Amino acid sequence: MSAIEAKNISKVFSKTEFNWRNLFKSKKVETTAVNKLNITIEEGEFVGFLGPNGAGKTTFLKILSGIIHPSSGEAKVLGFTPWERDYKYLGQMAIVMGQKNQLWWDLPAIDSFNLLKEIYAIPTEVYKKNLDEIVEILDMKPLLTKALRNMSLGERMKCELAASFLHSPKIIFLDEPTIGLDVISSHAIRKFLKKINEEKKTTMILTSHYMGDIEALCKRVVIINKGQKIYDGGLAELKNKYAPEKKIEIFLDNLEAKEKFAKLDCKNKKLVENNGIIRVQKEDLAQVIEQVFAVFPVENISITDPDTEEVIGKIFQK
Amino acid sequence: MLRYIKINLVLMRNSFIRDSQMPGYVISSFLWRILDITISLIFFGVIFANIQNLAGWNYWQVIFLYAFARIIIVAHNAWTKRGIQSMATDLIRRGEFDFYLAKPVDPMIMVSIKSPRIYNFITLIFLIPLAIYAAIKSGVPIGLDNVIWFFILAGFGFILYYFLMILCVIPAFWFIRLWTIAEIMDKLNTFMRYPAGIFSEGIKIAILVIFPIVTVSYFPAQILFYPPQPEYIVFMIFITLLFGAVVRYLWSLGQRTYSSASS
């Protein structure tokens, strides 16, 4: 059974702009945040939502989590229409927003967790078991008794995540959970999410501007721009479709090597500090590699796929 | 119901822990309330030094009305006011209302009880004895039926006051930034301390029917001192249910139009 089935979901925000000089000629301004979006997500999938700022990712997530009503379209999440706010649905769903706190600012995290226990009516044994498990994976025991206002951003996000998983949701919407976090905190959170997804088969939808998050966690990505879906598929296929090329990187350790690089007979080459970078279409790869290997030592050469970030950038520029 | 009681107990406990860390706030807030009550009593003393009664109500009856009105206000200040006010100041504007919509609880109730100020209940220690003392000193014979009907109508008054507070902040769903609207009730509370008879007919309709702020305190107090009149009881129940239905409808309408805030 599909966890999410959304058909033709649109959301138009309208705002009335008042003009004090012509009060009766106020103008209604409409902005389309989501435009006829169709998506199906299976249970247990970990899907990454990508798109530039204002693409409609968060709006779509809020529609699926029942926070806002769509202007048109239909959606079923775990068999429920999200905006009808059926408690049976809300009890199986969670949303984490990287830029907002749901926990009490002045109180230790454990007090907020106890409140969530009552809100979700979690039986005491289940609550204790889940809390112990989450605390162990996120290594956050000392945080339980620390007031939220005294925590670092990374610590706060750990607590936010813990709070969202206490009731064992079947589906979770993660809106930029690693925003502003350092490498260590981001890594810990990625590890946690991956473990939960694999062990509990929780369906997860992640939006993030950090490609590292998407690459580490999501096999499938959905790219949204101006409210419309422009890609839905695997990360590897995405690169094949939008950047069917390889990147050859050569470490140029001296001036002589740089001169040799300049003399190479190939297009799309550039010098970035001590690295020579050549972008090659796959059909020309063998010929270019032969030339490069003939000139430079093997240990100075690497052949990779283009960075996902570059590919995404290309798509948005189209 | 049991679930909301449990949630409420956790919130009260959390409020107790938080407020215990801020003794300065608790003490100043308590002193301010006692000062407010003292000043009001002095003014009533001044007024009754010049007149015999206020619309037929003697000094102690008016003091009872004042104390009873304050009990309702203080109880709501301690329990629901801050949460409800935050709808007009923060929750909608910053999009924090999202979290209430994403939980399997009634967002209106949850927002209302989210920020209790448990120490404000202390003021009731002064107000309840004051109300009892004033009722006894009024010299009006009060029967058991008066007392029973008073408590029933006081319950309705308490609920009606809650609906009126919610009604004041509902426009925030459409107008987003409404700091002043959150303070409307503070201004209107002043009406609750006087017998309805002192107001002109037009104002009476406004404060007893259109925005029945005076109904909250006057009808229960009236039934305590005078023979219970069925039309008063029916009216009080009817208007509470009516405002409950209106508030529920407008809130769900507002919730539908809620557009959250950008991330």
Describe the structure.
The complex is a heterodimer of chains A (318) and B (263). Chain A is α/β, with parallel strands linked by helices and 318 residues long. Helix content of chain A is 36%, strand content 29%. Chain B has one domain (2-257). Chain B starts with a helix and ends in a 6-residue tail after the last helix. Chain B is globular, with a radius of gyration of 19 Å. Chain B has 263 residues and is mostly helical. Chain A binds chain B through residues 13, 54, 58, 62, 65-69, 85, 87-88, 90-91, 93-95, 97-100, 102, 104, 106-107, 111-112, 114-115, 118-121, 175-176, and chain B through 3, 6-7, 10-11, 13-14, 17-18, 21, 94-96, 98-99, 101-105, 110, 256, 258-260, 262-263.
Tags for this model:
heterodimer, A: 318 residues, alpha/beta, six-stranded mixed sheet, 36% helix, globular, B: 263 residues, 12 helices, 74% helix
What percentage of amino acids of chain A are in beta strands? 25-35%
| Residue fraction in strands of chain B | under 5%
Helix/strand/pairing class of chain A, anyone?
alpha/beta
- The tally of strands of chain A reads 13
Topology pattern of chain A, helix = H, strand = E: EEEHEHEHHHEHEHEEHEHEEHEH
Number of helical stretches of at least 4 residues of chain A:
11
- Count of separate structural domains of chain B: 1
**Helical percentage of chain B:** over 70%
The poorly predicted ranges of chain B are: none
Ends apart, CA distance between termini of chain B = 34 Å
Biggest interchain interface, per-side counts: A-B, 35 and 27 residues
Question: How far from one another are the termini of chain A?
Answer: 35 Å
